[in-house]
Amino acid sequence: MKKETRKTDNFEIEGGRKLSGSVTTNTSKNGSVGLLCASLINKGVTTLHGISHIEEVYRVIEVLESIGVKIKWIGKQSLEIRPPQNYNINSLNKDAAIKTRSIIMFAGPLLHHLKSFSLPHAQGCKLGKRTVSAHIYGLEELGVKIKVTNQNYELGYKKLKPAEIVMYESSDTACENLLTAAALIPGKTTIKFATSNYMVQEVCFFLEKLGVKIEGIGANTISIYGVKEINKNIEYYNSEDPIESMMWITAAITTNSKLEIKKCPIEFLELELYKLKKMGLKYKITKNYQSKNARTNLSDITILPSKLKALEDKIEARPYPGINMDNLPFFGLIAACASGQTLIHDWVYENRAIYLTELNRLGANVLLADPHRVFVQGPTEWKPAQVVCPPALRPSVVIMLAMLGAPGKSTLHNVYMIKRGYENIVERFNNIGTKIKFTRE
User: What is the location of CATH 3.65.10.10 in the chain?
Assistant: First the structure.
């Protein structure tokens, strides 16, 4: 019997073309996932608007449906979520669960439906060791007992209690987990050294709409006044993705193009733009206006062709309001377009900086100093190449963007990682002047 071979999805890219016109930032990947997990605390019907059609969201939906949640797409980007009377955790779709790191975010909300349950360890992007200690220690402060086995996290409790939590580390997903757990524990829970990144604020706004009082949104200390029950039929709009906005900014820089990027969550891009300004980037920003969630400030940004020079200081990411962790790989590519040498310091992940050396296949000069640091020498005369996507979302996109700047035909193989986080990416790029063809082999 002939063994079936799994086909891979690829992008064939004719690079060296200028971008033009305008593109609109999609709603956020991380916001979509966080809201889907947070919806579990509501016994009523939750309708979420602006949910991304991406592989990461599909995996989360598969997990939700496997434990009894009824989910229906309404129109293009809206989901109606109906919780079950009883959650069937034994039927959890493990294949879908291990493909997304987001599975750990089910812990907080499921505590309010199950006194004990197990969640499998996740995979997601392969970026080296990624600790879940902030999740575990925070939930333990709320009264949860957690045992980590080779394959699962086993959770259980006798009674949940409000607490004053000091975050073990600044983790967005851990903060979201603790928010959803605290929302249904009557009393005041305080989270200190909390992250105030865009996806965390999104969950806060959603919880407020459910009737949970929260103080300190956007700050490093957040207080949640938990309620006994939430049973509301509500609608909520997910806001736009600052990481996608940064992708379009980087695409314009790499192709030296003029490009208008609409609906950029400006408060989560201000430092990135200021660094780029100091590198010589020319751009225009419109006045702020609000996203459909009525909380997030947006602006339209027009990137202009510019000659960039390397910064004297290293570029590194920090918890918000620093440069976003997910935006740092884009700076690796931008540094390759600038005159001079730049040190990129990716201190969070052991493996991610290594993936930037794949840009050397396309003509870049990236020197790996250690697992966390690379020296990037620019400017680069890009050349076409064939590259296999690394097993990480943002570095994969960075390679794709570099191919846009390389005159000639390049092929990016096995693009599942990109499809995890970006919706209709080929069509949207081709609408602004690229020539990308989707193939399967």
Answer: 9-24+242-257+310-440, 29-237
